UniProtKB/TrEMBL annotation:
Keyword entries, A-Z: Hydrolase, Metal-binding, Metalloprotease, Protease, Zinc
Domain Aminopeptidase N-like N-terminal as annotated: residue spans: 23-194
Source organism (scientific name): freshwater metagenome
Stated name of the protein: Unannotated protein
Residues covered by the Peptidase M1 membrane alanine aminopeptidase domain: 236-425
Length: 436
């Protein structure tokens, strides 16, 4: 048997560089009782390198049928959490194909070495999909690469009585006997790991206020939820739109599960929180700000390689400190100094711009990344710094980026030698001094 492709060394056994997916149309049904998922995924594929084989990622689910238009399918097979499509002949670069996969099964999280488990997960009464970074194949066949963004339509027929929240805009909600169908469309390009559905006995909670831009912001959770931590979420949107530029999607939902969750997680146009992270304490509030900030940094502007994870986590962590400052609490400079002190006491064996998969979500990536941004802010001044952030999002939204691109961008916008300033933070182990 031939070797199956890997697109990114941080996620061995995921992704295929020979093609891209332009659109996913997921037409799914899910029975909460019994955890049974079934349906059709229609993928609009563009061939990027001449190939006679397409390898999709799909874990734990069985494939009942595959149809390909635009090329002749010789056979398909599933192995090693992949769906391998052998074509009758090689198709040239630039060919567009439509692939329809009918599949079914009982979805469950995918466990990866160094990364733990991710993906479709049953709650006490409902479902979360927390896919970062490797969990998407647990619920739909995909080309699981962070740099392969697509538009999505997600239709889910689910047991009546549950609320579904997925990416983008709710286009349709209809009831039919014992089921309800929810149809979402995400037009802005989205990486596979940011695709999600949330299923629970949820209601919409009246938000405390609306953002100045009129952006629809929801708090969705159990009827008895008391979540004072979200009371200022609309003000966070105002602050971040001022600092980072317009919110990049057409709405935002914070979904709070009835269960407690270890960590919250961002998806495109929504985030998921356990009901243990809803209070007015700083640890809840900073995470509410953090996940919201990922809509700009991570979701609109997405890394091309997982090694550049600081472009997501360093920025979202710095956004926590900015919210602290904007809300009249501790200034970012003070938080940077405090966390810099803590970093100095920790082992300095992490390379920020390539931490390795096992340290990808290490707290030092977050804090050192945020300190590096603070160092940049001190060096170039507030005006240039926020101009760098705003133009970074404005010029890169919908695309995939690298650290090198950020350094070039920051240098050209600020007119400063950003490379010399940030290289020790990014590419050397020793913690640089924090300028003040
Ligand atoms: Zn984060």
């Amino acid at each position: 048997m031939s070797q199956l492709p890997t697109a990114d060394p941080y996620l061995p056994g995921h992704g295929d560089l020979s093609f891209g997916v332009r659109r996913y149309d997921l037409d799914l049904a899910y029975a909460v009782e019994g955890n049974r998922l079934s349906g059709d995924a229609t993928l609009e594929v563009e061939v990027l390198l001449a190939t006679s084989r397409l390898v999709l990622d799909l874990a734990h689910l069985s494939v009942d049928k595959v149809r390909v238009s635009g090329a002749r399918l010789k056979r398909f097979a599933t192995r090693s959490d992949r769906l391998v499509l052998d074509l009758a002949e090689e198709v040239p670069r630039g060919t567009t194909l439509t692939v329809v996969v009918r599949y079914s099964g009982s979805p469950r999280p995918l466990v990866a070495r160094d990364l733990g488990d991710a993906g479709w997960e049953e709650l006490t009464d409902g479902v979360i999909v927390a896919a970062q970074p490797h969990g998407s194949p647990t619920w739909f066949p995909c080309n699981d690469r962070p740099d392969d963004k697509a538009s999505y339509r997600i239709a889910l027929r689910v047991t009546a009585g549950y609320t579904v929240v997925a990416n983008g805009v709710l286009r349709e909600h209809r009831r039919g006997g014992s089921t309800e169908t929810w149809v979402f469309e995400q037009d802005e390009p989205m990486a596979t790991y940011l695709a999600t559905v949330q299923i629970g006995r949820y209601v919409d909670h009246q938000p405390a206020g609306r953002p100045a831009s009129g952006l629809p912001v929801r708090v969705v959770g159990p009827a008895d939820l008391d979540a004072p931590g979200f009371a200022r979420q609309h003000e966070m949107v105002d602050a971040f739109e001022r600092l980072f530029g317009p919110y990049p999607f057409s709405g935002y939902a914070a979904v709070v599960t009835a269960d407690e969750l270890e960590i919250p997680l961002e998806s495109q146009s929504l985030s998921t929180f356990g009901r243990n992270i809803v209070g007015e304490d700083w640890d809840s509030v900073r995470l509410i700000a953090h996940e919201l900030a990922h809509q700009w940094f991570g979701n609109a502007v997405t890394l091309r390689h997982w090694r550049d994870i600081w472009l997501h986590e360093g920025f979202a962590c710095y956004a926590e400190w900015l919210w602290s400052e904007e809300s009249g609490s501790t200034p970012a400079a003070e938080l940077a100094a405090e966390h810099h002190g803590r970093l100095a006491d920790k082992p300095q064996d992490l390379l920020l711009a390539d931490p390795g998969p096992e340290l990808m979500f290490d707290d030092r990536v977050y804090k050192r990344g945020a300190c590096a941004l603070h160092a940049l802010r001190v060096k170039v001044g507030d005006e240039a710094f926020f101009e760098v952030l705003r133009t970074w999002v404005a010029s890169r939204a919908g695309t995939s980026v690298t650290t090198e691109e950020f350094l070039e961008h920051a240098a050209s916008v600020s007119g400063s030698d950003v490379e010399s300033l940030l290289t020790p933070w990014l590419r050397e182990l020793e913690l640089p001094a924090l300028p003040s």
